[in-house]
Amino acid sequence: MYNPSPCRVILTSLFLALWFSVSAQAAYPDKPIKVIIGFPAGGPLDAHMRLLVEKLQSTLGQTVIVDYKAGAGGTVGAQFVAQSPADGYTLLLANTGTMVINPAVYAKTSYETLKEFQPIARTAQQPLALIVNKDVPAQTLKEFIAYAKANPGKLNYGSAGNGGISHLVPEMLKNETGIFMVHIPFKGSAPAFTDLIAGHVQFMAESVPQAANYAKLGKVRALAVTSAKRNPALPNTPTVIETGVANLEVVGFYGILSPKGTPPEVVNKLSQAFKETLDSPEVQKRMLEQGADPAYLNADQFTKFLAGEMPRWAKAVKQAGAKLD
Question: For the whole model, what pTM was predicted?
Answer without folding.
Answer: 0.79
